[in-house]
């Protein structure tokens, strides 16, 4: 993607962690949102921290950010590398021991968090950083990209919990 540097915006965030699925998802709108988010990060001069996979929504958002010339840090447990790294990787890949270390490393390198649609792993990552904020472990913003109402049920649950 060719980016017009005259239209680039400066953000208060240097790096944003994006949680998302290692699959493409059930709707093409999820794929479109992953690419659009990656392009928006580029336009705002924001680097990406993510789960390290080269497949699914993870692969789409990381490729968009990388193609736009921003730095990409992927953090992936060694046990997931054979399953989630296929073909070429983009940016910097950091292999860690387990899922807990992955989340801690992703949080350490991020100024904020955004969750795209995903499965159990995405939900677990999202809820952990929300819990860390609630406990005062960090004060970083956490947001949802609620594509086609994907997170409506979760938001309803949170409103009544």
From TrEMBL:
The lineage of its organism: Eukaryota, Viridiplantae, Streptophyta, Embryophyta, Tracheophyta. One of its GO terms (biological process) is cytokinin biosynthetic process. Its EC number is 3.2.2.n1. Pfam families: Lysine_decarbox. Cytokinin-activating enzyme working in the direct activation pathway. Phosphoribohydrolase that converts inactive cytokinin nucleotides to the biologically active free-base forms. GO terms for cellular component: cytosol; nucleus. Belongs to the LOG family. It comes from Noccaea caerulescens. Keywords: Cytokinin biosynthesis, Hydrolase. One of its GO terms (molecular function) is cytokinin riboside 5'-monophosphate phosphoribohydrolase activity. This is Cytokinin riboside 5'-monophosphate phosphoribohydrolase. The keyword Lipoprotein does not apply. It catalyses: N(6)-(dimethylallyl)adenosine 5'-phosphate + H2O = N(6)-dimethylallyladenine + D-ribose 5-phosphate; 9-ribosyl-trans-zeatin 5'-phosphate + H2O = trans-zeatin + D-ribose 5-phosphate. It is an enzyme of class 3 (hydrolase).
